[in-house]
Design a protein that fits this description.
The structure is a single chain. This protein is α/β, with parallel strands linked by helices. It has one domain (6-331): TIM Barrel, CATH 3.20.20. The chain has 13 helices and eight strands. It has helices at 6-11, 14-20, 39-46, 69-78, 94-106, 136-147, 177-190, 203-214, 231-240, 248-256, 260-275, 293-299, 317-331; strands spanning 25-30, 54-57, 83-88, 111-115, 165-170, 195-199, 221-226, 281-285. An eight-stranded parallel beta barrel has the order 1-2-3-4-5-6-7-8, surrounded by seven helices. Helix 9 packs antiparallel against helix 10 (248-256), helix 10 (248-256) crosses helix 11 and helix 11 crosses helix 12.
Amino acid sequence: MVDDGGWFGCCGLLLQQTLARGRFAITAEVTPPRGGDPARTLAAAAALRGWVHAVNVTDGSRAVMRMSSIAVCRLMLEAGIEPVLQMACRDRNRIALQADLLGAHALGLRNLLCLTGDPVRAGDQPEARAVNEFESVRLLQLVARLNAGLDPVQGTLPDGGTAFFAGAAADPQSPSRSGLRSRLQRKQQAGARFVQTQMVSDGEALRRFVDEIAAPLGLPVLAGVFLLKSARNAAFINRVVPGANIPQAVIDRLAAASDPAAEGIAIAAEQVASYSQIAQGVHLMAIKAEERIPEILRQAGIGPVAGVGDSAGGRPQGQVAAEQLSQSLLLG
């Protein structure tokens, strides 16, 4: 089970330690509320406790108003749930980014996913003014400087460096392989230490991304799996989510199902099982249906996650059994 005590429970190092030790990592995602009451979001995150290593909190996703991701992350940390703070550049200039990073660190937040941010025109306030002084690579560079104890203006920070575990996003299904390669290389050089991908529907594209692009850079990949609730939901995702490309065959499968919700869980479980043989982890997205994530993992043959001191947590049972058999053959 997850080790929530001591340093890990305080500042959230379970994800970092799991990836560093080459183990299979599982993350999920929650969205802050559109209002001042965090109860539902915290309940959704609590339902994932023991099943994932960390939970991402989105930051102005799709350019709509939501509660501060920093606030939700701190509330989750207090509840014993390891957060991953998503930080987007769209709405902040460099001074605001610097302030939010230092404030997040003071609140005990360590996991960080650096993002450029969805365009304002994708949201419900298209007249809002975007800032976009930085994008994800420059944000990663800023984090690296802070981690090194360097003041972004001059000299050094008076109280030493920060200790962020910074990651980046990527789309393995990008039509431009050269662009995808160069962009990820820049992120790795800027300080990214892990990758969480956009939703993936093409396993072979994921394999090429991991083997040809991410692995040579030493970056562990958590493959994005998105829970689809119906054919209509899948079509909506294709229409409004940047980069989404759900195959028509999947949409048809959902449309033909007598229970689309159950079929969506089965599809997600199949993807988790498949991607677990390719990537070092999965990142599960189940908007307003986070309580279904444990069932997805169960159907994929994955049990509750373990702490960093345990040996088999979070890995597919078949993978664990294969490793145990291999060890017994070697010993025999």
